[in-house]
Amino acid sequence: MASRNSVAGFALFTFVFAVISSLAGAQTLAPAPAPTSDGTSIDQGIAYLLMVVALVLTYLIHPLDASSSLSFF
Fold it and tell me: pTM for the complete prediction?
């Protein structure tokens, strides 16, 4: 009987502890704000694209004005 009472007491204690623990942490977190773009990433992407275009144009134009007899294609 003593063993049965201690098991029942332990089960009751565990249940009460679980309920109290869940109530203690019942605070909800505020939702995170939606990500917004201030345009800097768009501007940076355009800048990279323009740099690539300038690099390609440089490599296309350079063989035309080079003094060597190498052909581009």
Answer: 0.41
